Amino acid sequence: MELCLALDRPTLSDNLELVRELKEFNIWLKIGFRSYVRDGNRIIEELKNINPNFKIFLDLKLYDIPNTMADTSEEIADLGVDMFNIHASAGKSAMVAVMERLKNREKRPIVLAVTALTSFGNSEFLEIYNKPIPKWGIEFAKASFEAGLDGVVSSVFESKAIKEATSSDFLTVTPGIRPFGESNDDQKRVGNIFVAKNQHVDIIVVGRPIYNAEEPKEVVEKILVELEK
Ligand code: C5P
Question: What domains can be seen in the chain, in order of their start residue?
C-alpha cells in the first residue's frame, strides 16, 4: 500500500512549502481541481523540481463527451503526470475512447474512474442514478474494468468488494482516511490504516491529518512505517 498526499493547502507556496519538508519520501502527490485551476502546469513543474521521483496524481475527474475526454486525456498524458481520473458515469464509451487514445503511447499515466462521489447520500444518488450506491458503485467499477481502466477511486469500505468483482490487480485509491483515527473533519465514512489494509487498498489519500499536524513530516514517517508492516 502507498501513500498519496492531497495538496489542498490554500496557496501554491503553502503547498510547495509542505512538499519541500517531505522531499525525501517516496509518496504520491495529489493535485486537485482548485490548485490546478489556480496554478496550472506550474505546480507540476515545481513539484518535480523538488523531487523528480514524486509521483503525481492529477485529480480533475473528467466528465464530457467521449471525443473531448479522449483529447483531454492525451493532453494530460503529455504533461507527464503519473495518474489521473475520469468519471465512470460519463459512460463506458467515453472510458473506452480514453483508453483507446492512450494505448499506443510508450508510457501512459494510470487511469482511474470515480465511481460515486462520497458527497452523495443514498437518496441523492438514487435520484440521479436510480440505483443505491453500493450496487451502482460495483457496477461502475465493473464497467471501468471492462473498459480497460487501471482502477477506481472508491470508499475504503468498498475496496475488497470491487477487487472481488473485477480483479485483485484492479487498483483502489481511497480518500476518507484518518490513519490513526484523527478527526473526521467533513468526511462521513472514514477508515484508518488497519481498515485500508484489510480492504487491500492500493493507495490511501490523506490530506488534513498530515498538513494540519504540527509536524507533518513525523506523521508521514509514522504512516509509512505502518504501511511497511
Ligand atoms: O483532508 P482529507 O484527507 O479529507 O482529503 C481528502 C482528499 O481526497 C481531498 O482532496 C478530497 O477532495 C479528495 N476526495 C475525497 N473524496 C472523494 C474524492 C476525492 O475526499 N470521493
Answer: 2-228 (3.20.20.70)
